[in-house]
């Protein structure tokens, strides 16, 4: 047995990175691929796996240490040397990193990619998933760009996630995105086409030889930001050097990227994510104590401890159970007839989790009312010709959005969020209205910003654009942020009332049902009026019943006489 120094493998950069977790201690027996430390740059976090077996004699770094390629990490009494890459890394791998041409190459096009890849037109290149070290069925959890975006070289295009790591795939080129060929939730492997890019000429000119001779369906693999690839099972493994011939991925990025992704705010390394999964902890509920709010293992452990000590206050850890509630048992339905197991989309799972959280956390009250929209409908129908001319579909919904914006301005107690301390309210001075949009993939809630300041035409136009984007899964994170209040409309479907679930941290939501002509007692006789049934669910911690009633009455009066909206 010989003592050997285990060093930081090639990071593909000369920059220093921070040690954010040390996962071993003296005396530990290391197996191949055991994680040793977690390193973090300003772009990503990555685990460094053991490339040899042995017993840890000494740990040479502490949390917070700044390290770079070649920095000694451990002294190991080595049992067997599985790879000399790590111990000899600096010279050979450093040379690899210094060769940018080796980082970009034409990736082989698998049959399915060839079939689906459109013929690249002049100046348009197809960007594909690079070598994932053999990993297949890796899930796309985030799409970070949209058609029309101008992308810089190395800018993240998508985020992939395996059981062990999340990673951004950086762009190998600068250019403009002309088509996205991938969807959230897709399971991908090397060669799958991500997007088509109109590469800026400067970048096109410096294409390396291997990539610059595109065959009809040539694919450009993203450049390596560091020489880590995904091994089977997804653990980042240092490359053995320039001879590997594989294009490598950016290091595992914690999901900090912008997009409609529930994990977007979660800042945690793969080891922490794995621990959370093992313990059934929803990381979105854990407060990070590390730098920049990063969640460390101790935070997960403290979270579990606090939940065990205070089970009554524990929110659901999953969409199906938690909060001290008895779980609903899985049943073998195949005993009763044929069944099929269908994977829920990520969006569906997120929606389910949010619904559970909101249902369990918010003490709901739902008030029902009706608005007489006879005059509104007459007016709306009179505008049809103008609407057609403007190319805008004028449904009752833009009027309802405008009325809600006015009602929120007049009843500011509905335009608040509760602070987690339970002792403060956050009063909002802006009026943004979210609208639930059903899409084949699940429910999305784009937001009409500053609806109080917009005309009904503007709102109608924006609503059409947002709902089209939602249905095409093109909504950006900004399109779904910042709602003060939500409207869920089933008006085109039917029903006479329902109890929508408050979209916390908002405190109220309106449910719109289908308008119909009803006999209404007016001036000592029944007259036919178009009545719109609606409901208002509110958080009874923030809003009392009287206010709920007054809000509904006010809303009904605005919809009954839209001139009031101008006052
Ligand atoms: N009463 C009667 N008719 C109504 C109505 C109402 N409350 N609301 C809409 N309609 C009519 C419209 O006028 C339109 O009829 P015409 O084509 O004859 O003009 C028709 O229903 C279809 O409207 P629409 O659905 O295209 O447009 P919208 O502005 O009402 O709604 C949007 C837009 C994006 C909200 C909708 O397309 C959608 O996705 N609805 C589903 C909402 C949903 O899933 N809610 C979640 C419920 S549970 O959380």
Polypeptide structure, described:
The protein is α+β, with helices and mostly antiparallel strands. It has 3 domains: 3-239, no CATH class; 262-312, E3-binding domain (Dihydrolipoamide Transferase); 348-566, Chloramphenicol Acetyltransferase, CATH 3.30.559. The protein has 12 helices and 30 strands. β29 and β30 (525-539) form a beta hairpin. α10 (396-410) crosses α11 (456-471) and α10 packs across α12 (545-560). The longest helix is centred in the middle third of the chain and has 16 residues, at 346-361. It is elongated and about 100 Å long. The model is unreliable at 81-121, 202-264 and 312-321 (pLDDT under 50). Bound molecules: oxidized coenzyme A. The site of oxidized coenzyme A has 19 residues, from α10, β24 and β27.
Per DSSP, the total helix count is 12
Structural class: alpha+beta
Helix content: 10-25%
The total domain count is 3
The largest β sheet comes out as: 7 strands, mixed
**Average pLDDT number:** 78
What small molecules does this complex bind?
oxidized coenzyme A
Q: Tags for this entry?
A:
alpha+beta, seven-stranded mixed beta sheet, Dihydrolipoamide Transferase, elongated, 567 residues, Chloramphenicol Acetyltransferase
């Amino acid at each position: 047995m010989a003592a050997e120094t285990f060093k930081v493998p090639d990071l593909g950069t000369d920059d220093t990175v921070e040690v954010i977790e040390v996962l071993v201690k003296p005396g530990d027996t290391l197996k191949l691929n055991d994680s040793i430390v977690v390193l973090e740059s300003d772009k990503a976090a990555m685990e460094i796996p053991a490339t040899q077996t042995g017993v840890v004699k000494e740990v040479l770094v502490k949390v917070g240490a700044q390290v770079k390629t070649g920095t000694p990490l451990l002294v190991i009494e080595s049992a067997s040397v599985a790879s000399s890459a790590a111990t000899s890394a600096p010279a050979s791998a450093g040379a690899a990193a210094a060769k940018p041409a080796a980082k970009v190459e034409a990736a082989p096009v698998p049959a399915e990619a060839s079939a689906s890849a459109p013929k690249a037109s002049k100046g348009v290149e197809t960007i594909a998933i690079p070598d994932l070290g053999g990993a297949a069925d890796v899930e796309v959890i985030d799409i970070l760009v949209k058609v029309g975006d101008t992308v810089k070289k190395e800018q993240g295009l998508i985020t992939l996630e395996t059981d062990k790591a999340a990673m951004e795939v950086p762009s190998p080129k600068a250019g403009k995105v002309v088509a996205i060929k991938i969807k959230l939730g897709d399971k991908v492997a090397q060669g799958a086409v991500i997007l088509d890019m109109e590469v800026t000429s400067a970048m096109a000119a410096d294409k390396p030889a291997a990539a610059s001779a595109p065959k009809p369906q040539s694919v450009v693999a993203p450049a390596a930001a560091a020489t880590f690839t995904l091994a089977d099972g997804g653990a980042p493994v240092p490359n053995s050097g320039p001879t590997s011939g594989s294009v490598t991925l950016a290091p595992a990025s914690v999901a900090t990227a912008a997009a409609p992704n529930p994990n977007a705010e979660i800042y945690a390394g793969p080891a922490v994510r794995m621990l959370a999964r093992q313990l059934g902890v929803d990381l979105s509920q854990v407060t990070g104590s590390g730098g920049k709010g990063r969640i460390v293992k101790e935070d997960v452990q403290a979270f579990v401890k606090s939940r065990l000590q205070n089970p009554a206050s524990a929110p659901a850890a999953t969409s199906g159970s938690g909060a001290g509630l008895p779980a609903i048992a899985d049943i073998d339905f195949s005993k009763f007839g044929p069944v099929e197991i269908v994977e829920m989309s990520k969006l569906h799972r997120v929606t389910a989790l949010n619904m559970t959280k909101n249902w369990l956390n918010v003490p709901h009250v739902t008030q029902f009312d009706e608005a007489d929209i006879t005059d509104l409908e007459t007016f709306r129908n009179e505008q049809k010709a103008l609407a057609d001319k403007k190319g805008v579909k004028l449904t009752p919904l833009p009027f309802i959005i405008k009325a809600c914006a006015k009602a929120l301005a007049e009843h500011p107690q509905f335009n608040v969020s509760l602070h987690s301390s339970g002792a403060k309210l956050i009063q909002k001075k802006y009026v943004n209205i979210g609208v639930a949009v059903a899409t084949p993939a699940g429910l999305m809630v784009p937001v009409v910003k500053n609806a109080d300041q917009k005309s009904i035409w503007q709102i109608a136009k924006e609503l059409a654009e947002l709902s089209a984007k939602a249905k095409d899964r093109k909504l950006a994170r900004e399109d779904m942020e910042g709602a003060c209040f939500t409207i869920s409309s089933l008006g085109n479907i039917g029903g006479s009332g329902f109890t929508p679930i408050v979209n916390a941290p908002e405190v109220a939501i309106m449910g719109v049902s289908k308008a119909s002509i009803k006999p209404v007692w007016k001036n000592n006789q029944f007259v036919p009026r178009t009545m719109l049934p609606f409901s208002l669910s509110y958080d009874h911690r923030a809003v009392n019943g009287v206010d709920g009633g007054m809000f509904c009455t006010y809303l009904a009066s605005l919809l009954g006489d839209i001139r009031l909206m101008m006052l």
